[in-house]
Amino acid sequence: MYKKLISFIAVIGLLLFVSLYSMITGSIEVGLGDLITGLFTGTNENVEIIKDLRLPRIIIALFAGACLSVSGVLLQAVLRNPLAEPGIIGVSSGAGFVSILMITFFPTLYFYTPLFSFIGGAAAFLLVYLFAWKSGLDPLRMILIGVAINALFTGLSQLLSAQNASSLMSGISVDASTLTMKTWDDVGIITLYGTIGLLLSLLLYAWCNHLGLKDKTLRNLGFQVNRARFIISVVAVLLASIATAIAGMFTFVGLLVPHIGRVLVGNDHKVLIPFSALAGALLIVTADTLGRTIMAPIEIPASIIMAVIGGPFLIFLLRKSDRIYGN
Amino acid sequence: MEIKDITFSYQDKVVRLHGIETSITPGKITTILGPNGSGKSTLLGVLTNNLAPQKGSVILDGKAIKQYKPKELAKKLGVVHQQNNAPSGMTVEKLVYYGRLPHKAAFTQHGDKDEKKVTWALERTGLIEKRHAPLDNLSGGQQQRAWIAMALAQDTPYLFLDEPTANLDIFYQYEILELVKELCKEEGLTIVMVLHDINQAIQYSHEIIAMKNGRIISHGNPRDIVTRQLMQEVYGVNVVVKDDPALGMYIVPIGI
């Protein structure tokens, strides 16, 4: 109990600290006081630039992290597979591919990117589910099929972008993610759909917990397993697609953050879901801040920083604790 | 419970149950016996609505089980499966509360009645001391009792147990069987179980259903149906059937 509380306080504290630090640091630097007065009065020129360029980027990083992490938690529950993650099983690359495809051929439909992204993500998930289903979901088979689907969609996306290496797909990058050139329109989209998805997943925590039991046990308790699975999957795909549509590809977050969460706050989804949302937001905003400051003016994509700090951290936590999902 | 002309096969189209026709007597313990692959677990799966038969139906209180709403059926029959698993760190009490799921509307909290039933189920299964212990810390016998407690909290007139004594030491096997006997006698539950041990089946059942190759070979009181011929036919094993005034009836396998 104590450990959970401390974990929450630590993550929230760090989240506030890193977000504020990120706002005042970079090629333009302002003091915290100036920033706050500037935001309200709109008279400080530097603060106006931060508001236009840096703030959207921070908000998007926060939401992308939260959405991808929670999507990972939900997919792991639905598929009963600790390795399930929107990046690994191809949901993100499916979302990315369909977005790029549509924008390449119908650039005027840019505003509908989240919708295309959702369709692509859902299609990829459905393919994984259908191919992996063989009178039950075999965890290993599912991951292998997910990896194959992911490779397919990543390949198709690269094919498209190689063919017309133009500025058409400004929003979506194929493999790495940089959070540059984000506007308040992007913020509007990700906060709207992201908030809806995150609230829905908080409501679904009990169902995610139920799925820790076997299907036949749940069926005999009168629980409609397939309905619950379908609804949770839709929310998971929504979260992953919206993050991909706005922030690009971040593999590994959906795997890393939930596992850190399980070690720190346990398997109960009532706490795991909100914790993962906060920790995911923290991870990506930290990665992005480091990415644009440590080698300035060169920017390192946030996804790269994240993998470099996240990987060792996960290994460290797993070595310290033998509590891995499902065992 | 009436079982009418059940025919069942998995996707491989091999017929596992051939026109099963029988009934389960309320308030009694019925044990399904038979060698591996005889269809006993499949039959249990059909009776508990986990497997949908291609033909025939199971009638419970005048209505086919597949016509029940999931929650309504879950208020009628509880099931303890053979291999169970729960997420790590789950406590006994939390698991037993799952038994209250069919009695609860979605997104609501537990009430007094749930609490009472859970406590009762824990008392019945002798786990009241262990209620806050994580399931992983319990012995095999205690874990099995925890799953039974979950089914008891479901508060159903029917209880199905698929090989409840599998993988347990002999002491725990009898502990489970004694519990089953008490539940039938004192709580009036109708119990249907699958067992491997013929003598345990004779000792603890009011009725035995003997199966082979997806067919019922014999169904009735153990004293009436367990014979040398039946054991030879069902298991292909030569047995001596003994009847001792003090020990009751038992069999001794002597060869094949």
In short:
The complex is a heterodimer of chains A (327) and B (256). With 327 residues, chain A is mainly α.
What does this structure look like?
- The complex is a heterodimer of chains A (327) and B (256).
- By secondary structure, chain A is an all-alpha fold.
- Helix content of chain A is 73%, strand content 0%.
- The model of chain A is unreliable at 167-172 (pLDDT under 50).
- Chain B has 256 residues and is α/β, with parallel strands linked by helices.
- Chain B has two domains: 2-76 and 156-255, Rossmann fold (3-Layer(aba) Sandwich); 87-154, no CATH class.
- In chain B, strand 9 (207-212) and strand 10 (215-220) form a beta hairpin.
- Chain B is globular.
- The longest helix of chain B has 18 residues, at 170-187.
- Chain A binds chain B through residues 135, 203, 206, 209-210, 212-214, 216-217, 219-224, 266-267, 323, 325-327, and chain B through 10-11, 48-50, 69-75, 77-79, 81, 83-90, 98-99, 101-102, 107, 154.
- Chain A: One of its GO terms (biological process) is siderophore-iron import into cell.
- Chain A: InterPro entries: ABC_BtuC-like (IPR037294), ABC_transptr_permease_BtuC (IPR000522).
- Chain A: Part of the binding-protein-dependent transport system for heme-iron. Responsible for the translocation of the substrate across the membrane.
Q: From the helix content, strand content and strand pairing of chain B, which structural class follows?
A: alpha/beta
Question: H/E element string of chain A?
Answer: HHHHHHHHHHHHH
CATH architecture of the largest domain in chain B: 3-Layer(aba) Sandwich
At CATH's second level, what is the architecture of chain A?
Orthogonal Bundle
- Could you estimate the helical fraction of the residues of chain A in percent? over 70%
Write down the overall geometry of chain A: globular
Fill in the CATH topology of chain A.
ABC transporter involved in vitamin B12 uptake, BtuC
Class by alpha and beta content of chain A: mainly alpha
**CATH class label of chain A:** Mainly Alpha
Number of alpha- plus pi-helical segments of chain B:
9
Q: What low-confidence regions of chain B span 5 or more consecutive residues with pLDDT below 50?
A: none
Strand portion of chain A:
under 5%
Give the tally of structural domains of chain B: 2
Number of DSSP E strands of chain A: 0
Family (chain A): Belongs to the binding-protein-dependent transport system permease family. FecCD subfamily.
GO biological process, one term (chain A): siderophore-iron import into cell
Membrane topology (chain A): Multi-pass membrane protein
GO molecular function (chain A): transmembrane transporter activity
